[in-house]
Amino acid sequence: MLDLYARVLRQSVDIVDGIGDDQWDRPTPCAQWTVRELVEHMILENRGFAAAAGGETSDRRVWTDRQFVDDRRADYRASADRVVEAFGAPGVLDGEFWLPLINPAVRLPARQAVSFHLLDYVVHGWDVAAAIGRPVRVPADIAEAALDIALREVPDGPRRRRPQASFVPPVEATPGASALDRMLAWLGRSPTWQD
């Protein structure tokens, strides 16, 4: 799991590094966010998950403190390095995480929390790539893992129809679609958003 996770984060860094100076205000498949807002969300999530991996149980500020350096690419790179290092620390995957911004009352097995983050960053990496018009190839093993996590952990239902839902209802995948395209469709993304 950690090898797949680290590869996903490295790919997301490569994608964010490819954002042009004139592309930060472009819309993304996350309808409520521009490229800049999506990358800032990704930075905050990385900071929050890294803090949770380090044992933080209640401080929501690490998830919400919107202080960023001027170079969002460098800020994202630093946050990705920090969360990969935090998840890889000895014993972390055998513990539990508190995720106070997501649900302060629930502790999750660390492996489940890491799988959520892996899925999110396959999707958000694709979101950024689609928004900046960059083709992205997700290796088959990562796409299959993300599809499995999506089907297992993100059921369809009323929660996905709420305003500001993390993932909207599924759209239909084309026959014979790849694992990546099936995962995107299950999470409400049109795999052809950038076409």
Describe the 3D structure.
The chain has one domain: dinb family like domain (Four Helix Bundle (Hemerythrin (Met), subunit A), Up-down Bundle). It is built from 7 helices and 2 strands. Helix 1 packs antiparallel against helix 4 and helix 2 packs antiparallel against helix 5. The protein is mainly alpha-helical. Strands 1-2 form a two-stranded antiparallel sheet. The mean pLDDT is 88. The protein is globular and about 45 Å long.
Write down the overall geometry: globular
CATH superfamily: dinb family like domain
The residue fraction in helices comes out at: 40-55%
* Strand order across the largest sheet: 1-2
Q: In CATH, what is the class?
A: Mainly Alpha
What is the element string, with H for helices and E for strands?
HHHHEEHHH
Largest sheet: 2 strands, antiparallel
- What is the residue-averaged pLDDT? 88
- Provide the CATH topology: Four Helix Bundle (Hemerythrin (Met), subunit A)
Strand content: 5-15%
Query: How far do the termini sit from each other?
Result: 32 Å
Low-confidence stretches: none
How many domains is the backbone divided into? 1
Q: Which secondary-structure class do the elements indicate?
A: mainly alpha
What's the total number of strands? 2
Query: Number of helical runs?
Result: 7
Using only CA atoms, what is the Rg?
Answer: 16 Å
CATH architecture: Up-down Bundle
Q: Which descriptors apply to this entry?
A:
195 residues, mainly alpha, Four Helix Bundle (Hemerythrin (Met), subunit A), two-stranded antiparallel ribbon, globular
